[in-house]
Each structure stands twice: as C-alpha cells, then as structure tokens.
Amino acid sequence: MSTHSAPTPTADALGDRLAAVRSSVRDAAVRSGRDPAAVTIVAVAKTFPAERVAAVADLGHADIGESRAQELKQKAPELGDRVRWHHVGQLQRNKVKDVVGTATLIHSLDRLSLARDIAERAAAIGVVQRTLLQVNVTGDPQKAGCEPAEVLALLGRVRELDHLACVGLTTIPALGSDPRAAFHRLRELRDAARARYPEVTHLSMGMSGDYALAVEEGATLVRPGEAIFGAREQREGRQEES
Length: 242
Ligand SMILES: *Cc1c(COP(=O)(O)O)cnc(C)c1O
Known about the structure:
The chain is of the alpha/beta class. It contains 9 helices and 9 strands. The chain has helices at 11-31, 50-58, 69-79, 96-99, 112-125, 151-158, 179-196, 211-216, 226-229; strands spanning 40-41, 43-44, 63-66, 84-87, 103-109, 129-134, 164-170, 202-204, 221-222. Helix 5 (112-125) links the parallel strand 5 and strand 6. The structure holds pyridoxal-5'-phosphate.
C-alpha cells in the first residue's frame, strides 16, 4: 500500500467507470441471450500504480490483469489476497517463476516450450497452473499467439503435462482488423477444441474499445484496462512484453 492513507482522488471516477463497464457487459450479455454472470471482467492494470489497483479492489472488484511480469511481482505483495491476478501479456522464460502460482490464470500461453517451463515451475511449487492458449487469429506478424491451424495439436501436447491445465483460448486482434470477425473465429476454434477436450471452455477477448462486442461473440473473460483505470500516461503498445 502507499504511505498516504487518504482516499485516492480518483475513487469516484473509478467507481463510475467500473459501473459503466459492468453495465455494458451486462447489456451485451442480455442482448445476445447470455448469462451476465458467465463473463468475468479482468481489469488490466498495466502501468497503473498499486494504489489505483487497491482502489478498484476496494470497490469489490477482485480480478486484475497485468501484462508485465515485473509489475505483477511488484504489486502482488502489496495487494495481498484482495486480488485475483491474471497474466495477460507475453511471457518470457525467465519471468515464468514470477508469474506461476501468483496468477490464477495465464492468458498468454503460445508455445509448447513455454508450457513446459510453466509446468515445471508449477510442479516445483506444488500448484496446478491454469492457462489459456493465445491464438493469432488475424495473422498479424506483430501479435503473439499460435496459428489457428496449430490449436488442436498444441492443446493435445499441452494437456499431457502435469501441473498445467489449459482451459480456453485468448486473442488480441490486429489493429485495423475487424474485431468481431476475429472474436467469432476464436469462438469457432474454441468450439472445435472443446468438442475434443471438454475443459477448453474459456474465451478471453475484448479490450477497452471492443469488450461489448466480445461479450456478444461469447467472451467469458474480457480485458478492459483504460475503460476502468482511466487513460494511461504513456501511450503504450496494445500488447506489452513482460
Ligand atoms: C493493455 C492490455 C489490455 C487492456 O488494454 P486497454 O486498451 O487498456 O483496454 C488487454 N489485454 C492485453 C493483453 C493488454 O496488453
């Protein structure tokens, strides 16, 4: 926690934005005949200080995302068990140890070697790490994720590993692509995967600009950042390296 105990001046604004995001998620779910309770809002806190995360947690919102392992490592001890952490950014081998066991869900598994590293660390600390397989549905060379054609084969290999469970898919559409088409494609891939591997149920998709669309297309996890925390000071890339 910060050393100032005064309430953050943005608490009201945070509350208003969180309420607005919750209500658009609810509306989008209802509009598409879905149960709003089937959608988890992961508030992505990258670049925002721990105090702002604490303010959101104090509003009763526990699911927080980080895209840099370093930030997760710094903020997690300050927030304690008020927060359920999600790791949503690219994960490098040497950061696996900072994320496994702290994150309830790693959204960015994208290759077998990373799955092996995660499983090894999870075994060492005696946990089963839940993950999502990230898929590059728009084929953008700048975006992480496996190829759509690799999904079934990768899932088959990954589920042979002890201490790791892959329970769904993630995508980040390329800038300038049609996000609805990308979300729809991810859902089709999830449906095909689930037919073979029933534990593959989740769909992590949708950021501040398009999370309502993602809910309409079946998202079970949406990842708005700025829509909840406010504008980031530095203009960051849409996907951060950890
Ligand atoms: C930063 C980030 C988000 C949130 O982005 P906003 O534009 O702040 O909504 C979601 N997912 C990932 C993987 C990110 O890196």
